[in-house]
Every structure is written in structure tokens, then in C-alpha cells.
Amino acid sequence: MGKPDRASVPNVTDIHDRCFDELDAATFHDLVRLRIDVFVAEQECPYPELDGWDTHPSTRHVWLDGASGPATYLRVLVEPDGSHRIGRVVTRSDARGNGLAGVLLDHVHATTPGRLVVDAQTYLVSWYASLGYVPTGEEFVEEGIGHVPMARKAADA
What we know:
Helix content is 23%, strand content 34%. It is of the alpha+beta class. The chain has a domain of 103 residues: Gcn5-related N-acetyltransferase (GNAT) (Aminopeptidase), CATH 3.40.630.
């Protein structure tokens, strides 16, 4: 799997990496809508999407815009032990297959010191492994979807 060529994806702009207080209401709306469109509607997984972490001062919202708003997104939370939890990794259906989520993860790897953790949906374990993540526990089911806890040692930023 080679490096994705972001230039080959029409109308994808630079990476945005912002805390909640740096987001305007319209942008936050669009980011949450992308998450709900994929996780709640497409994956048919009704769960409490607004969990209180989006507004935490240390939470980072990272995304790439496409022609019709956010194309791919993830958020980074700081865990009590100092590791960084990557979550809500999502790509709009019409933007999939272009390596955009990998572009965001490369950015997070380059800008986040210390250990990174993720609860990977089971079907994505091999993809995360290709990015340097290793399983740290057994598969578990959350909201009806299988997940595997994984971790990666990030380069010091």
C-alpha cells in the first residue's frame, strides 16, 4: 500500500487540527453530522454521539475538507495516563478509498508525542496494524460492533 496522493482527490484542502474553542458553530455542526451520518445512520448504531468529550479543552478535532464539507475526520483525547486516544475516525462514503483517513493518522503520528491508542473496529485491525498499531487486548463488542484495543508508540513531536 503506497502513500495516498491527496492531490488526486478533487477539492480536498489542508489538514485542520483544532480544539473546540477554535471551531465555529457551522464547522462543529458539519463534523458531528459526518459522524452521525456514518456511525448512526449508515452503520445503524444508535449511540450517544455527543458524549461530552468534544468540548474538553484538550480534545483535538482533525479533518480534511472536500467539495461538500468535511471528507474525513478524527478526534484525539488525552487519557488519564497521558496517552492519546484516537477516536471517531470516519470518512464520508463518497471520499472513501483515497487514503484520506491515513493522511489524518500520519498527521496525528507526526504531531502527537507518546503512546497512541485506538479501539479499532475489528474489520480495520489489519489496516491499523499497517500503520504501526498492535493489539493490546481481546476483541470486545461495543454498541453491537466488534472492536480490538490497539496501541502505537508515536515519535516525539
